[in-house]
Amino acid sequence: MELKNVAKNTISMPKDFLEGGNSVSEKFIEYALPLVGELPAMGRLKNVSIGKK
Fold first, then answer.
1. Measured on CA atoms in the order 35, 12, 23, 19, is the torsion positive or negative?
2. Amino acid 20: pLDDT
3. Count of domains observed in the chain
4. DSSP assignment of 11-47, as one string?
5. pLDDT given for residue 18 in this prediction
6. Which of 6, 5, 29 is nearest to 17 (CA)?
7. CA 37 to CA 41: how far, in whole Å?
8. How far is CA 20 from the centre of its chain?
9. If we measure between CA atoms, which residue out of 3, 2, 31 comes closest to residue 18?
């Protein structure tokens, strides 16, 4: 399918599906869960400095 045919059918995500700067809300997870199945746990990287060579 060509992009021009897909792009005209897109809609913006409702604001109540977003939380903070980069996260999704519990409402989005409730919506998405039946569509995508169980979501993996999200991890965080520690702030580790790497020395210069």
1. negative
2. 86
3. 1
4. -PPPGGGEETTTEE-HHHHHHHHHHH-SPPPPP----
5. 93
6. 29
7. 13
8. 12
9. 31
**26 belongs to a structural domain:** yes
pLDDT tens-place string over residues 1-53: 787 777 777 888 899 999 988 889 999 989 999 999 887 887 877 887 777 87
Instruction: Tokens 């604001």: give the residue.
Output: 15
Let me know the angle formed at the C-alpha of 16 by 27 and 28, rounded to the nearest 5 degrees: 30
Tokens of 48: 């580790």
Cα–Cα nearest to 14, from 24, 4, 5: 24
Which domain covers residue 28, as residue numbers? 13-38
Q: How many CB atoms lie within 10 A of CB 37?
A: 7
